[in-house]
Amino acid sequence: MRKYLFIAYPVWLYVLFTFPALIAAALLKTLLGTDPLIAHMAGAAGMCLTYMAGKRKRMKQLPAVPWKRIFRLSGLMLAPVATLTVILTGKAFSNLDWKTYLPVVLGTFFWASLSEELLFREFLITRMKETGMTAWVMIPLTALLFSLCHRPETGSLFLQRLVTGMLLGCLYLGSGDIALTVSTHWIYNTIVYTFQMTLPSVTLLYSSGRAGLNVLLCLLSLLGTVVVYSINKSKFAGYT
Q1: Which of 132, 169, 183, 237 has the greatest number of C-beta atoms within 10 Å?
Q2: Which long-range contacts (CB under 8 A, 24 or more apart) does 200-206 make?
Q3: How many C-beta atoms lie closer than 10 Å to residue 20's C-beta?
Q4: pLDDT tens digits for range 47-77
Q5: How far apart are CA 159 and CA 17, in angstroms?
Q6: Structural domain boundaries, residue 178
Q7: Mean of the per-residue pLDDT values for the chain?
C-alpha cells in the first residue's frame, strides 16, 4: 500500500497552493473587482515550481522540460483558432476586456496547463507505470483526481473535466510528449474561456449559433493540429 502513496502528491500540492489562491482571489474580487482567475496564476505557478524543484528533479528518467517546443507548438495551435475567432466573432472579440483576458490566457492558463500536465500526466503516469499499473487503471484514475481537484460545482462540470482528463491522459500515454499535452491543454482552455467571455456580445451582435459554431470549429482545428502533429512529428521537428 505504501508504494501507492505517490498518488496523493498532486492532491497535496493542490491543497497547499489552491486555498491561499482562493482567499487571494476573493479579496481581489471584493476590493478591486479583479477576475478571480488572475489570482490563481500564483497558485498554479507555485505547484509547478515546487514539483520541478523537488520530485521532478529527482526523477532522472525524465528529460528536461521542453520550454521552446511548448511555446512553438502552442503558437501553431493558436494561429487557426485566433483566425477563426476573429472572422466569426469580429467586433465581439475586439471588445474584450484585454486587461483581464491577456493575463488569464497568457498567465493563468499557461501555468495551470503546465502544472496540471506535469503532475497529473507526467508524474502520475510515470510513477504508475513503475508500479505495473495498466492503462485501464492509469487513465481513469488520473482523470478522476484531475477532475476532483478542480472542485467541480456540478455533475456536468465533473463529467466534462473527467472526459478532458481521460483524453489528455490517452494523449500523453500514447505520445509520451509533455509539450503536446501542455499545448493542447493550454489552447483548449483558451478556446473555452474565449467562448464564455464573448458569448453575450456575439449573441447580441450576431447570434448564439455563431458563438457555438466558432467554438466547434476552434475545437476541431485544435484536434486537427494534434492529429497532424502526432502523425508527422518528425516533419514538425524544425518548427517545434
Answers
A1: 183
A2: 201/89, 201/91, 201/92, 201/95, 202/89, 202/92, 204/92, 205/90, 205/91, 205/92, 206/89, 206/90, 206/92
A3: 13
A4: 999 999 999 999 988 999 999 999 999 999 9
A5: 24
A6: 2-236
A7: 91
Alpha carbon distance 228, 184 (integer Å): 13
Q: Domain tally for the chain?
A: 1
d(CA 34, CA 28) in angstroms, rounded, equals 5
191-197 long-range contacts (CB < 8 A, ≥24 apart) are: 191/81, 191/215, 191/218, 191/219, 191/222, 193/104, 193/105, 193/109, 194/85, 194/93, 194/101, 194/105, 194/218, 197/96, 197/97, 197/101
Tell me if 4 sits within 8 A of 133, measured CB to CB: no
What angle separates helix 135-149 from helix 155-175, to the nearest 10 degrees? 140
pTM: 0.94
Helix or strand holding residue 1 (H, E) = none
CB 138 within 8 A of CB 128: yes
Q: Which residues contact 183 (CB under 8 A, 6 or more apart)?
A: 70, 73, 74, 77, 113
Given phi > 0 = left and psi -120 to 50 = alpha, else beta, which region is 177?
beta
Separation CA 131–CA 140 (nearest Å): 16
CA-nearest of 185, 213, 186, 184 to 198 is 213
Q: 220, 212 in Cβ contact below 8 A? A: no
C-alpha cell at 118: 506535469
